[in-house]
Design brief:
Layout (H helix, E strand, L loop, with lengths): L2 E3 L18 E3 L1 H11 L4 H4 L1 H4 L11 H6 L1 H8 L1 E3 L2 E14 L7 E16 L2 E12 L7 E11 L1
Parallel strand pairs: 1-3
Antiparallel strand pairs: 2-5, 4-7, 5-6, 6-7
Length: 153
């Protein structure tokens, strides 16, 4: 559940790291559905038998599937400004895919607020460093600098 804060206190979150989110399992059904949505049916994602012959030993999630999970994980780590009537995805300053997410792996997010700027009255831009961890792995799936906006009445 997102934390709600008064607009006069939101800047206090810059530099803070959030606790990790709950784990989420990335199963073959989700990978297949993502492949259908994006029209990316590369065998490494959707053909378990053929994928066994690769260095991964099985199917792996699309990097963009792992990235798209940020919206889900943000429900747990995001700080919402009291009175915000809209949140917007503003983009990314940096995204790096570090390690593949094998089918049936569990992933979670850690976030750190690196900047919060009121770009104009009632419009706040958040820069959040997000790391998607893979359970039992030393390397994360990805690290991204995610930009979001909140519009406050």
């Amino acid at each position: 559940m997102a934390t709600t804060v008064d607009r006069t206190k939101v800047m206090e979150y810059v530099g803070r790291e959030t606790p990790p989110t709950q784990w989420h399992t990335v199963d073959q059904a989700a990978i297949n559905e993502f492949a259908d949505c994006t029209l990316d049916h590369q065998f490494i994602h959707v053909d378990p038998e053929r994928a066994k012959q690769t260095p991964f030993g099985g199917t792996v999630a699309h990097g963009f599937l792992s990235l798209s999970m940020l919206s889900h994980f943000a429900e747990e780590f995001m700080v919402m400004i009291e009175g915000a009537h809209m949140g917007l995805n503003y983009g990314f300053d940096k995204v790096r895919f570090i390690a593949p997410v094998a089918v049936d792996s569990r992933i979670r997010a850690r976030a750190k607020f690196i900047d919060i700027t009121e770009t104009k009255p009632g419009q706040f831009r958040f820069a959040t460093q997000v790391t998607i961890e893979i359970e039992g792995q030393d390397k994360p799936a990805l690290i991204a600098e995610w930009l979001t906006m909140q519009l406050v009445a």
